[in-house]
Amino acid sequence: MEFLRTLSLDEVAPAVHLIIGSIFPEADSKPLEIGYATASSALKAGRQEKLVKAPLTIKAVREGFENIAKAKGPGSQGRKRALLQVLLAQSTEIETKWILKNIFGEMQHGVNEGVMLDAISKASKVPEELVRRAYTFTGDLGRVASIALSEGAVGLEKIGVEFFRAIKPMLADMSYDIREVLAEHGGLTAFEYKFDGARIQIHRKGSKVRIFSRRLSDVTESLPEIVEIALKELSAEAYIVDGEVVAIDASKKPLPFQDLMRRFRRVKEVEEKVREIPLNLYIFDLLRLGEKCLIDEAYQERWNLLAKICPEKYMAKRLITDKLEEAQAFLYEAMKAGHEGLMAKALSSPYVPGKRSRYWFKIKPFHRLDLVIVGADWGYGRRQGWLSDYYLAAYDQVSGRFELVGKTFKGLKDEEFEEMTKRLLSLKVSETEHTIFVKPEVVVEVAFNEIQRSARYRSGFALRFARITRIREDKSPEEVDTLETVRRLYEAQFEHKGRMN
Q: Is 279 within 8 Å of 263 (Cβ atoms)?
């Protein structure tokens, strides 16, 4: 808080991004594309020609990163290395440490986005809710900090839902029980298909269309057929809608998320990929229509307005009911159609950008496996001092080895993290700076939503959205599920899903 107040106005934005380890605004992210080998080479050369004469400034570091990100094309790695070398040669030992931590996203000092929002609020004497709301509209925490410190609440109140500036999408809480959802929403609830796709936000004003990803990146060039739909099939001239794109196979079955990622954000050979991996568009919310911002309107009102401008074939399939049996049958129908599950939305709910709330729930059936922990990473932030990101393995009956099928830090309570840390340290067989490897002894039950192919693990598989549901004190490592079971579950997924050839 005090540090922010000491900065000149043009230092605030870059300082905020550098402190939380994002370097650039989320809405304008640019990859540095610097690997470990490039950084090591630049560090070695920088140490040999230290040029520290004057203090390195915040603006100089930001400018250095900007220049590195701009280096593209043939020979770009050499230019990036040279630019980083110059930056490191100008920095002290402690500055070098934090520059490298920024590059590799390993800040580990506990000052995350939430802490920074609180600091901006206190430094500017503006209510945190107003700071947070402005951030969801801009995706640029540095810009929000600059406005808060220079213009206060008056400046932040002017920030709203603007065309061609993506806002953070509304998020949903997780539920595995439809009864819980009906009770939370007081009975009548809107259930929509939950798609295994990529969230997008479409902005149109006149003949201009821009499409943004969940992370607020501009993905318009990758989705030409979605641009066509936005221009020709939605009847309004100016709108912002929230939706999802899903990859499909030749028989129109949804393809796994992995296959969609081969298409999403593609900027080269797009036309070829359009033919190879066609997309279905599903729209489920309307955030702005003409000059009217709708995020504070009730969900049902937003849906009704959306239905007036959007053809039914592009709208998420929906059921409004207060009956458990009807909702369960609708869930089965969604799964049979190859989708992930259901979304459940309170009819009166506003659209709350960037926030997870119980206005919306995601309901997804899940599978469970008993796996053994073979290693763990040290945590950071709130989990600093605990081993809290666990390597999970199944037993390969062919090789006689335990093979990795995923990692997770989800599922345990704080006291369980602490106890697990002591237990795993007693089983340690080797370690690196961030990871310990352990004797395979601790068995855990793991819930997950999907299995996908993975080149990262020797097993060839990775669990998606894995979380530990309990520690199996009653099971020995010899009793964990086998790699063959994992393989069988993977193949079973394609009973309703499509598959790339």
A: yes
Residues with catalytic roles? 194
What's the angle, vertex CA 262, arms to CA 258 and CA 263, rounded to 5?
120
CATH of the domain at 305: 3.30.470.30
Q: Are residues 355 and 374 in the same domain?
A: no
Are 202 and 82 found together in one domain? Answer: no
CA distance linking residue 40 with residue 337, whole number of Å: 49
Domain identity same for 38 and 123: yes
pTM of the model: 0.72
**Terminal Cα-to-Cα distance of the chain (whole angstroms):** 55
Per-residue pLDDT of the chain (501 residues; tens, 9 = 90+): 788 899 999 999 999 999 988 888 877 767 788 877 777 787 777 666 666 567 888 998 999 899 988 888 888 888 988 888 888 888 888 888 888 888 877 776 778 888 899 999 999 999 998 998 898 888 889 999 999 999 999 999 988 899 999 998 999 987 878 999 999 999 899 999 999 889 999 999 999 999 999 888 899 999 999 999 999 999 999 999 999 999 998 888 898 877 888 777 677 778 888 888 899 999 999 999 999 999 999 999 999 999 999 999 999 999 999 999 999 999 999 988 988 889 999 999 999 998 888 999 988 777 788 999 999 998 877 777 888 889 999 999 888 889 999 999 888 888 888 888 998 998 989 888 889 999 998 999 898 888 988 888 999 999 988 988 888 877 778 888 899 989 888 887 777 667 776
d(CA 80, CA 73): 11
Residue 117, domain extent: 2-157
Residue 13 CA to chain centroid, in angstroms? 23
Determine, yes or no, domain membership for 165: no
CA distances in angstroms from 149 to 11, 111, 146, 477, 492, listed in the order given? 12, 19, 5, 56, 55
Q: Whose CA is closest to 246, among 198, 297, 286?
A: 198
Q: CATH number of the domain that 481 lies in?
A: 2.40.50.140
**Residue 318 sits in the same domain as residue 426:** no
What SS3 class is residue 307? helix
139 and 109 within one domain: yes
Residues 355 and 212 in one domain: yes
Domain stop point among 363, 378, 405:
363
Does residue 415 lie within any of the structural domains? yes
